[in-house]
Amino acid sequence: MSRLAVWVSGLRFVDVPGEVVERTKSVIVDQLGVQVLGGRLPTVQPVLVVAERQAGTPEATITGSDVKSTVSRAAWANAILGRVCEYDDAHAKAWHTSCVVVPAAVALAERQDASGRDVITAVAAGIQVMALLGAAADAEAGAATGAGLTGRAWPGWRTLAAFGAAAAAGVILGLSSAEMVNAFAIATGGADVAAELDCGAGAITCLHAGSAARCGLEAAMLARLGLTMPNAGLDSGTGAAGLFSVAPSREVVDTVWHHWHVLDTIFRFYPVVDAFHAPLEAVRHLRETHQITPGTIEKIRVGMADGAAQHCVSITRPTDPISAQSSLAFSIGLYLVTGRTTPSDYFDSARWTDPDILAIADLVEPYSMPNAHNDTNSGVTTKLDIALTDGSLRSHHQVGFRGHPSQPAIAAEIEAKFWENTIDTLTAERIDTLLTALRNLDQHDTVGAITDLLGNRHRAGR
What we know:
This protein folds into two domains: about 325 residues, Orthogonal Bundle (2-methylcitrate dehydratase PrpD), CATH 1.10.4100.10; about 130 residues, CATH 3.30.1330.120. The chain is α+β, with helices and mostly antiparallel strands. The protein starts with a helix and ends in a 10-residue tail after the last helix. It is about 50% helix and about 5% strand.
């Protein structure tokens, strides 16, 4: 952790390669668009109410609100808005990064009058820290069975997120390496969360993004104000940070240290858990290629990697949006019946009990597919077989999916998603202005004009 603190404190915009700058800007575009979408969902209106009632000093914009709040409250609310849709980006080493790192960086940059260049640097640093720690934790888990994130009942991304937010905030504040070490030490208090709160926990899962963003941001602010914490445990084998400090972890980190991990961001074009993207791409391919209709289907077998096949596949009858988004069977049924899988579909309670969708869901049989050829993309590989009532079989082998590093998303696709997520909330003129500003984020000396466009007063029709 001390090594990471030195790196974060020394990072400057000029050190960030051009392709990393561009990718980080796309990450910010995607996250802000998802926040706008999240701001109009009924499930998180209580979050906006709490944030507005406890606004305090007006330092930073709450997406979708007329009210500005303290920087901590704005980061908390915006992180929740960005996570609740299950439409934020993902990362193979760090799960969900931008939903925590971007709100923390942007809120603090607004208060500090920091530049767009500072925000880009902060976001890239936060994602880098989360990915490196994720790589280290995975190595430690392999070195001692049951000692890693899952074995200790800590869900991966929520264990890493507070450190990512602290790193991003540290860049904005210009923390020294000693202050950054203290920020990480303080942030360990927000790194432990129960793993049980996963697929079936409802809207509460999005609250962890807010808690992590606030925890990491406040850790950096406290470190800047002089709070010190015992940090010997950061580089020992104890506590949350201890997951990242044993010998196998250090060796793995050495191998991936110089790679910019924001380049491995997975942009999601389906609002479901990322394990389901390859299956849905395969379903889309077969449906369009063979004009498959629901009434002609007898059985659907879905071969997935071991970890993916175990991820929430037992859910077939959704009871809330997150269980719908965590149900492979429901998602396949939804797409085959309606030809779409938009966020509004998953938040529509009528869809959860639609007999046509559930009839198809009952035909879905997921199974674990061995990685016989040591395929590096095995975790995002699917073998889909749809047996039809006429006795024929339609099959497709899907490797990767749109938005995955194996099929990288391009800026135009990410901006199109931004339009879809914001057009029912913001005017077309405001969306165009926002995208133009974000494309040129590195040329902005402050971000206040950008965050101002995310407030409630610019909703469509106002």
